[in-house]
Specification:
It comes from Jatropha curcas. InterPro entries: At1g61320/At1g61330-like, F-box-like_dom_sf, F-box_AtFBL13-like, F-box_dom, FBD, LRR_At1g61320_AtMIF1, LRR_dom_sf. The protein is α/β, with parallel strands linked by helices. It has a domain of 150 residues. The protein has a 15-stranded parallel β-sheet with strand order 1-2-3-5-7-8-10-12-13-14-15-16-17-18-19. Helix 12 links the parallel strand 14 and strand 15. Helix 14 packs parallel to helix 15.
């Protein structure tokens, strides 16, 4: 049997005495490479990062060297933005501006990749914001984002009200971007106004996002003519001219228009466009034949346009892989009896915001027009079923893997529809059923205890009966 190992006793008297409070002890952290210190500091908020500058002159240099600067509620006040209110924004404007200015005063790096300000301030601090933009451009920034609006106020105000508050909006002067040249690639402006003579300053942009901006009287066509490199264009909650022509944007791949007012027509002639989104309450006309290579389409439609979606779109867009349709019209009335087949669509989302009787036969006929569908999301507000005897023809969904049914009322036909999918989707991996719907659909509260128990029990019994293998989640 081996003897236990014995450690030699250390004579403490041989060790040099060191006072634990000795201020002359060696600072091992400050000896770390700049790259390591920068990584550590990158995990802190800007406020905490600036606080480390009191440790030493070297820490002050390192703490001011991130290549991405974000000035918002969390970084400046260590408070999540969803806890803010419109009143708290007004109370802290000067404190926020002072904090940004102090940080930029000791920024020592020579290169900046991204610069973002997200706070509710306007023309009252024009000189400060001008200085921040000039600083970012001087540092060779590639991404510049000014989100100068209050998220709390946007919850309660209409787009028209936000657009009319032009007197509080910061005006971005074209002269501030003159030094950007080829460096600035991405520009994100929220609740800002543009100076009228913006032209060549946008010539190197690849991405442009304008939100909550009054643009109805701007010559956007002239501005587009200088954007030879633009790949991504978004208008969100803007006041726009009656007509937009995108033909001069030859390299455009993504176009998103959401919740805008004033616009009536979009002229499309963009063979490189891959993603097109047009969502809102306005009736906007466009011809999809001008974008034959589209792979994702998200649109809100009314009445007759629903018929066009299910008859002409498959031929106009043969490469389409994702389709999302939002409507407040009577979809049952306008979906044609004979639907053209979408041969390449893998993802389908239908948001049906009008409370009309649920037509299970019509819904199944829609799904049969998508033979390669892998994901299906239905958001509806139907609280009643269409009357009549059900004669469901069997159809096998060979590729369907994920199904989400929101706004589910638990009517007999809706339950039969869920059963139909469980039975006929051979490789179904997940079925999610939720009585709640998103903001576009009439709100429906969660089930009461009796409703939820009935739906859960019915579907779980059927689930066991057919020996389904998918994950079923009922909220």
């Amino acid at each position: 049997m081996s003897k236990p190992c014995r450690l030699q006793k250390i004579n403490n008297s041989s060790l040099p005495d060191k006072d634990i409070n000795d201020t002359t002890r060696e600072d091992f952290i400050s000896q770390l490479p700049d790259e390591v210190l920068s990584f550590i500091l990158s995990k802190l908020t800007l406020k905490e990062s600036v606080g480390t500058s009191i440790l030493s002159h070297r820490w002050r240099h390192v703490s001011a060297s991130p290549s991405i600067l974000v000035f918002d509620w969390l970084n400046m006040f260590c408070v999540a933005q969803n806890h803010q209110t419109e009143h708290s924004c007004r109370m802290n404007e000067e404190k926020f501006v002072r904090g940004v200015n102090q940080y930029l005063d000791f920024y020592k790096d020579i290169c900046l990749h991204s610069f973002k300000v997200s706070f509710c301030i306007g023309h009252g601090f024009t000189s400060d914001i001008d200085r921040w933009v000039s600083f970012a451009i001087r540092m060779g920034v590639q991404t510049l984002s000014l989100e100068l609006y209050c998220k709390a106020s946007c919850v309660y105000r209409t787009i028209d009200m936000l657009g009319q508050e032009t007197e509080r909006k910061y005006v971005l002067q074209s002269s501030l971007l003159e030094g950007a040249k080829a460096n600035l690639k991405h520009l994100d402006l929220v609740a800002c106004r543009l100076e009228r003579n913006f032209t060549t300053q946008f010539s190197f942009l690849e991405t442009l996002t304008l939100a909550y901006s009054p643009l109805a009287k701007y010559d956007l066509q002239s501005m587009f003519s200088y954007m030879a490199n633009l790949r991504h264009l978004m208008f969100d909650a803007c006041m726009l001219p009656v007509k937009l022509s995108l033909g001069s944007l030859l390299l455009l791949k993504r176009f998103y228009l959401k919740r805008c007012v004033g616009i009536k027509e979009i002229e499309l002639s963009n063979v490189n466009l891959l993603y097109f989104q047009c969502i809102g309450r306005e009736v906007i006309t466009y011809n999809l034949s001008g974008v034959p290579n589209l792979i994702e389409l998200k649109i809100s439609v009314k009445s007759r346009r629903i018929f066009d979606i299910f008859t002409t779109v498959p031929e106009s867009l043969p490469l389409l892989k994702g389709l999302a349709v939002y409507t407040r019209s009577n979809w049952v009335k306008h979906v044609p009896e004979s639907i053209t087949v979408f041969r390449n669509v893998l993802l389908l989302k239908l948001v049906l915001a009008r409370d009309i009787d649920f037509d299970i036969l019509k819904m199944i006929s829609i799904l049969r027009a998508f033979p390669h569908l892998m994901q299906f999301c239905l958001v509806a507000s139907s609280s009643k079923d269409k009357q009549g005897k059900l004669q469901l023809s069997e159809y096998i969904f060979k590729h369907l893997k994920h199904v989400n049914l929101s706004g589910f009322s638990g009517t007999p036909n809706q339950i039969e529809f869920a059963k139909y999918l469980l039975k006929n989707a051979l490789i179904l991996e997940e079925l999610v059923i939720n009585p709640k719907a998103n903001f576009l659909v009439e709100k429906r509260p969660s089930w009461d205890e009796g409703e939820g128990k009935m739906v859960t029990q019915t579907l779980q019994e059927f689930y066991k009966e057919i020996n389904a293998n998918c994950r079923m989640s009922i909220h």
